[in-house]
Amino acid sequence: VDLGIITEQGGTIAFPLAIFAEWFAAHSLVAETPNPVEIVSDPRRLDAWHDAIVVAVGTASHEAASRILAPLAERDPALASKVIEAGLARWSLAEDVLPPPAQDCGRRLR
């Protein structure tokens, strides 16, 4: 708290910079807490978690990102596409993201 990275407001911690909140929220999503299905089923929650979802998709493994994106893609494929594009453009740590081998892609589509 003394460094100013987090603050305390009424007994609750807060992050003065939104990027910290988004980063930690993204890690929470990867750990499936909260459940992504619960987030996408509530438009207000989805709006509040949007940036964290973008960070998670850009930084998580393919498997973790897929678990987060699957319920979103079922509910709103266009938004899922925009999240993927933003996540990879802004947050991807890899210079070139190569797709999995063809057989693996086919298995994942089934």
Oligomer: single chain
Whole-Å distance between the termini? Answer: 48 Å
Portion in beta strands: 5-15%
Structural class: mainly alpha
SSE order: EEHHHHHH
Question: Describe it for me?
Answer:
The protein has helices at residues 18-30, 36-40, 43-59, 62-75, 77-91, 102-109; strands at 7-9, 12-14. The chain is mainly α and 110 residues long. A hairpin with a 2-residue loop joins β1 and β2 (12-14). It is globular and about 50 Å long. The relative contact order is 0.11.
Labels describing this entry:
110 residues; mainly alpha; two-stranded antiparallel ribbon; 6 helices; 2 strands
Describe, in short, the structure shown.
The protein has 110 residues and is mostly helical. It is 65% helix and 5% strand.
Write the layout of secondary structure elements.
Blueprint lengths: L6 E3 L2 E3 L3 H13 L5 H5 L2 H17 L2 H14 L1 H15 L10 H8 L1
Antiparallel strand pairs: 1-2
